[in-house]
Description:
Layout: H1 14-21, H2 25-33, H3 40-51, H4 55-68
Amino acid sequence: MQADARATGPASYFPSIEKAYGKPVAHWFALLESVAARPHMEQVAFLKASHGLGHGHANALVAYQRTRAGRA
């Protein structure tokens, strides 16, 4: 494995999400579990409206979580 390997796709947003909102991505994934049955964009709206995330950050978290859970 390369020492300088960088995350790609939605995971590439994780460092800036953690820096901007002061919480680890695991926190956001736990919140998303509470709305897992909702469609993708409703989950994005939940993070934006209830927790103040920007659209790109919310979308990256939802896309990653849904792909990981096989709900993409």
